[in-house]
Amino acid sequence: MSAPGVILAAPASGAGKTTITLGMLAALRRQGVATRSFKVGPDYIDPAFHTAATGRPTYNVDPWAMRFETLAGLIEESGRGCELLLGEGVMGLFDGSADGTGSTADLAALFGLPVVLVVDVSGMGASVAALIDGFRRHRDDVEVNGVILNRVASPAHAELLSRACFESVSTPVLGTILRDATLALPSRHLGLVQAVEHPNLQAFLASAADLVEASIDLDRIQRLARPPSVSLLGPDTRPLPPLGQRIAVASDRAFAFAYAAVLDGWRRQGAELAPFSPLADEGPDSAADAVFLPGGYPELHTFALSGNQRLLAGLRAAADRGAFVYGECGGYMVLGRALVDRDGASHAMAGILPVVTSFAEPRLHLGYRQMELLTDSPLG
Which stretches of the chain score pLDDT less than 70? Predict the structure, then answer.
């Protein structure tokens, strides 16, 4: 049976829910509470921070892109062997795909998990009560059972906000967190700077835990949590079939955007994973019948990658011998002919695909896309 769970969500992106989630995970671990976490939606970066805070693997659960059986299996698996399962939402609580589906609220409703709303109260007074009440009433199948007020300006501001909430809404305030610029995580164009690149991550986690312990009623949050209402007890989760029997997987700072659940699922189905580092000029294992290049930040390492001839020759050799070569996002870029950096300089890549990727005039279009396979492949 899965451990009791709760989801931290927010009215919008940028409310500080990742920092608060990390602080809670680190604080609970410090207190000896066995805690695991999950991340809602297609975010590769936050789970690595979660894992650093808990010391346990963190899975993504995506109600738009995943089958129900996959969602249920990952929730079930995430809740094994722990006392509390803490989920972090994505964007705003009710934000999802263009058709409105796939939100954090959808996941909370599907599994009957309570929601704690993290509200950025910068520049806000008594109006916070109306905002909370609106989120509480918006959907009958989603329970907002607590609120954390973040980026509070002062103790007097905290008192004003708490009084407004107490007088106007039934949702309890579980914590008020004063604004602290030292706990801001650096970002870049695809989200937070990766956990592996954070120079003082453990010190950051310790500071976040200190803040949470002083500001949030963790005991009450644990009492709010409850087991998922829908459980699917069956075989271990297998999100996707393996790309091959021996899969060479690119893995370093430039290629880190791989879902842990997918890699674990491949291993469970008997595939052998052979990691290699493109930044270290390592090519894929010559015995691999498949090569997986995850997304990441190759655009930050164009000079190194374009000069790594063992890497590029190894990718071309894998394609020539008929191995299935699959690149996502940054991995797809490296399989192309060239990658153009922000200064307009062109850097040669593997040349397997007739593609040139340019960051000289970037246009970022975030959102889900549905694709139809035109031919059979290991992808389907």
Answer: 1, 185-198, 231-237
Q: For the whole model, what pTM was predicted?
A: 0.90
Phi, psi of 132 (to 5 degrees): -60, -45
Q: Please choose, from the candidates 214, 8, 257, the residue with its C-alpha nearest in 3D space to the C-alpha of residue 108.
A: 8
| Distance between CA atoms of residues 5 and 59, nearest Å | 14
- Residue 137, classified by CB atoms within 10 Å of its CB into exposed (0-12), middle (13-18) or buried (19+), is exposed
In the block, residue with structure tokens 């059972």: 145
CA torsion 18-52-295-244 (nearest 10°) is: -130
Q: What is the rounded distance in angstroms from the CA atom of residue 252 to the CA atom of residue 304?
A: 13
| Distance between CA atoms of residues 87 and 38, nearest Å | 5
Q: pLDDT at position 233, please?
A: 57
Residue type present at position 347: H
Q: H-type helices in the chain, by residue range?
A: 17-30, 46-54, 68-78, 104-111, 127-137, 155-168, 201-215, 218-224, 260-268, 302-307, 309-320, 330-335
The set of residues, in sequence order, having a beta carbon less than 8 Å from that of 49 and lying 6+ positions away, is 18, 22, 185, 192, 195, 201
Instruction: Tell me what pLDDT residue 181 has.
Output: 74
Beta strand 173-178 pairing with 144-152:
parallel
| CA neighbours closer than 13 Å in the CB half-sphere of residue 215 | 25
Quick one: how many helices (H) and strands (E) in the chain?
A: 12, 16
At residue 362, the pLDDT reads 78
Residue 361 token pair: 């005039």
Strand partners, 60: 39
In angstroms, rounded to a whole number, what is the distance separating the alpha carbons of residues 82 and 62?
Answer: 22
Q: Annotated catalytic residue: which of 33, 131, 260, 329?
A: 329
Task: Determine the pLDDT at residue 187.
Answer: 63
Q: Mind listing the pLDDT tens digit for each residue in 30-89?
A: 999 999 999 999 988 889 899 999 999 999 999 999 999 899 999 999 998 899 999 999
- 329: annotated active-site residue: yes
